[in-house]
Amino acid sequence: MSEGSLIHKNDPPLVRAGKALLIYVVLGLGAFVVLGPFLWMLISSFTPDVELMRSPPQLPSNPTLEQYEKALTQIPYLTYLCNSVIVAVLVTVGTVLSSSLGAYAFGILRWPDRDWLFIAILGTMMLPFQVTMTPLFLMFRWLGWIDTLLPLIVPAYFGSAFNIFLLRQFFKGLPRDLLDAARVDGCSEWRIYWRIVMPLSGAAVATVSLLSFLGAWNDFQGPLIYIVSESKKTLALGLYSFVAVKATEWGALMAAAVMMMIPAIVLFVLAEKYFVAGIQLEGLKE
What we know:
The chain is mainly alpha-helical. The chain has two domains: 3-66, no CATH class; 70-284, MetI-like fold (Orthogonal Bundle), CATH 1.10.3720.10. It is 71% helix and 0% strand. It contains 15 helices and no strands. The protein has helices at 3-6, 13-45, 49-52, 66-73, 77-107, 114-123, 129-143, 150-153, 161-171, 176-184, 189-200, 202-217, 221-226, 235-245, 250-278. Helix 2 crosses helix 15 (250-278), helix 4 packs across helix 15 and helix 14 packs antiparallel against helix 15 (250-278). The longest helix is centred in the first third of the chain and has 33 residues, at 13-45. The radius of gyration is 24 Å and the shape is flat.
């Protein structure tokens, strides 16, 4: 439901104003419902312990940074942060490289049974993680990778069916004449991929990068399965451990959660225009 579909030019000015007001009220209430928990989390992170559990809840009379100090001192927050950054960055790089190469092979190159193999790859999207969880754990244990960051990073370098599909559909929309002209001029397929296709697909690549980074940054199940040592935990798993040890330190937990959200929010704000452009329908057409 959009504003344009409800407000018509032929409506009297008073009716148009009433409809616009109704739309903004509904949207405002919806935004409050969605953002309310996050706003309360932010407020709680600046609230002293003595005021945190007041009923009914109130704004802090004396905002303080003590909750952030607790979050940084009571748990190895910087260690968790460093591990999360390493995993998220390497997963993003691996996902973009492997998925773009796969998408180039399926979307640009022509070879026998290409479409059948692409359908088979799409079929892997139907398998839930719970189906492959045990075989993956046994394989990583055989490799000696348990309690390391490798099980969280290495799979990203073998492609992702969804990201291959997304980039393939974008690649197929690129002008074929441009690629054929590059081949006539003597460009290899690698140079066409790196010098022509990737620069022209900035919006789609930014979308894949953002989704991959946020997925790795917020991943909880993977670290829970493979990570044991405190020094290897990521932020998502570290915050869970913090709840288990400091069950009543809600203010410090809120502060740690706010600090965990900041990099993701900053990244999204910086890449927003590319992200929106990358999910345009024009990039998904055959």
